[in-house]
Every structure is written in C-alpha cells, then in structure tokens.
Amino acid sequence: MEGFRVIGGEKIRGKARVQSAKNAVLPILAAAILPEGEIVIRDCPDIRDVYAMAGILGKLGCACQWNAGKMRIDPAGLHHWEMPDELSKQIRSSIFLLGPILGRLRRATVTYPGGCEIGIRPIDLHLKGLRALGVSIVEDGGVIYCDGMSMRAGDVYFDYPSVGATENVMMAAALLPGVTTVHNAAREPEVIDLQDFINAMGGRVRGAGTQLIEIEGVKALHGADYTPIPDRIAAGTLLCAAAMTGGEIELTNVRPWDLVPVCDKLREMGCRVIDGRSTVALAAPERLRAFSQLQTNPHPGFPTDMQAQMLAAACVAEGTSVIVENVFENRLTHVADLCRMGADIRVNGRTAVVTGVPGLHGMTVSARDLRGGAALVLAALAAKGESTVEHIELVDRGYERLEETLTALGGKIFRVQR
Ligand code: EPZ
Fold first, then answer.
1. Is 106 in the pocket of ligand 1 (CB under 6 A)?
2. Residue 161, exposed/middle/buried by CB under 10 A (0-12, 13-18, 19+)?
3. What would the mean pLDDT of 163-192 be, rounded to a whole number?
C-alpha cells in the first residue's frame, strides 16, 4: 500500500497546468464503443480510473492503447455484451457502459456496481431511463439482464438530475431512430462534454447544460479525435492548496466559468481570485476567513466533489463555517481524521459545523474516498509538522501524480510504501 509523507508548513505557489477531467473522460471512454471507427482521446489523464475503464473496454473486445497521453480505442472488436461481476465492481463508472453496450449490441448483462465509501450509489434512475427507451430489464440475484431488441426513442423524466443516468441515456439513444428527450437532465459541464463528443462522432445531441436534452438517433457514428475539458475539481483542489497554505498560484488549462461556485467561496474566505480566458490565479490572505455556509447541490450548485477540500480549508479559517452535503449520504468520512489533526468539527447527519483553529498538527491519517483523501493531503500541507496519508491509491483514482504537482509548487510531499 502506498502513502504520501507530507512535511507541512510550506506555501503552495507557482504555476500548474490542470489535467483533463476524470468525470468527462470516463463517460467518453464508454461512448467510444459506439462508433464504427477509431477514437483518439488526447490529453487523457494518467489516473487509475481511466486505466480501469480501458481494461474493461479491452475485456469487452475493444482494443485500447495508451501512448504519451493519448488513448486510442478501436471499438470494432466489441462482441461481449456481458460485463462480469469482477469488471463491474472494479469501478462504479462501469455502469456508464450499460447504455452504449445496449446502443451497439441491443443486449447487456451487468451486475450492480455496488456502493462505495460515499454512499450506496443506487442505479434505479439509470434503469428507469433505459426502460423508457423500451429496454426490458430483469434483475435476478444481483445480475441485471437487459434486452434492447425493441428499443426505440422515448421520453425520459428523472426524479433527480443524475449525472450518470443522464449520460447513460444519451449514449443509449445516440443510435436509436427517432428523438429521445431527457427531462430534468443533469447540467454538469461533463454532460456537455459528452454531448460534444457524441456530436464529434456524427451524433445529433442538443440541449446538454440545460434540464432538457434531445438526442436524435443517427444510423451510424464515425471515429473522432477528441480532447476532453479540463478537470474543474482538480483545479479547485489546487486552488484550495494555495489558499490553505497562504500561497499564490496560477492555473492554466482551466475554464473559469466551470469554477464559479468554488472561486466565489474562496473569495468569501478572503482570497484574491482573478479569472483569465483559460487561467485562474489565486492569492491567499494571511489567514482565511470562514464562509457562512456551503450547500452542495447538482450543477450549477456547489459541486459535491469539492466539499471535502473546502471543509479542510474551513478547518484553518477564522470563524465558523457550516457545510451541508446534499448529494451523497455518506460524504463526511474525512471529518474524523481532520479532527485527529486538531480540527474542531461537529457533524449532525449531513451537516458539518467547522470552527476554525489557528493551525492543525501533523498526523498519520487514512484516505477513505477519492476527494476525502485529497482533503487530507491539503490539511497535511497546511499542518505544522509531518503527516502520512495512507491509502493514496484512492487519490490516484482521480489525480494525476498529485505529489509531483504539489512538489513543483513548493510542497514537501513524497510517495512512500506503507
Ligand atoms: C458523478 O457520479 C461523478 N462521477 C461523481 O464524481 C459526482 O460526485 C456525481 O456525478 C455528482 O456530481 C463520474 O462522473 C464518474 P449521480 P454519479 O448519479 O453519476 C443518486 C468524484 O469524486 N442516484 O449524479 O454516480 C446518488 O445516490 C465522483 O469524482 C440515485 O438515487 O452521480 C446520489 O445521491 C464521486 N439513483 C445522487 O443521485 C440513481 O440511479 C447523485 O448521483 C443514480 C444516482
């Protein structure tokens, strides 16, 4: 098992280029099985979840080749519609393959991807969306048998704007004759990126970014060469690192409009944040101020994937901050270890009340999920003394060599065997 050894107290400052978005690339990799030609994904992030997804595609018959930041996918060999349990369980995002497998082969067998550290992660909305497209679905003993032989365009309404369920329907409908509509669709930037990718393959999707998406099925999709959007969560994480250590940072390869809720909160905490066309620059105050409250919500609300990092920032801010996690039922797993580092946090259900302390102290802590682990790294950078963050394989799921990025920005952080 690997860990990060961190010697806190160094300011995070300098310039860094932000990686492409994990949560854009994963559905794009799933959609890459739809066309009749080869797909090239440029600037593909070098992260564990991408490798896991590429491995699943390989097992389904789609050759994937990684070369110098480019991922090549040849979907011609797709012949398996069954996704065995050991594949489904590898990463939760395997469920994103359900729609495209049905779109291509009209049949699919998957198992429940299972919950993770942040929640039970049901897939009822995914199945509701596919049933609205005429897919007959039988669930038996944890296995989901899907028959899409009579699939057709349909009208889908989501009780909750689920990102994955929206993306699954977009991919399932891309090759279906007729126009499929998705009402109360997720509006995240990564959903727009999936629309742009499908359209780059010759698809006809419109409305992504609004609550109504229309997918006009086409007869076939062709290959494409595509660069995903930058990772707004990786960007926000680096901004928090500078904010918490009294540093100064300039990020390139970012889309400032994707960071509005995060930069608004950081400004409320006393940071100076300047947006460029594809850059964001932040200068931290001597000491952060508490934000009054932070509520996570579907986009354009505050992104749940930045909650843990902002909670860590609140731990060292002057004053009391209130954080409410509205999206996932168990996404405060990082609180216990932050308290062991000296933070003053009270949790009641999905609400955390954080009273800032003058400083944290180094400690050995454990990542329990991707973003909670990132938050512990930020706390360790800001703490006095040495920390070890264990189970950083969870952090590697979504951040490209985080220790290298932070070292280049002045942080003292080393990857160690535990
Ligand atoms: C995507 O997950 C992201 N993952 C998550 O990022 C992100 O936190 C989430 O969207 C919300 O923005 C990827 O894109 C790979 P949801 P997804 O379906 O699609 C409930 C990270 O750290 N729900 O919008 O699974 C669900 O339980 C990860 O990068 C149902 O009830 O999110 C949750 O409470 C974590 N039934 C809420 O909706 C369903 O069928 C939001 O889930 C589906 C979801």
1. no
2. buried
3. 98
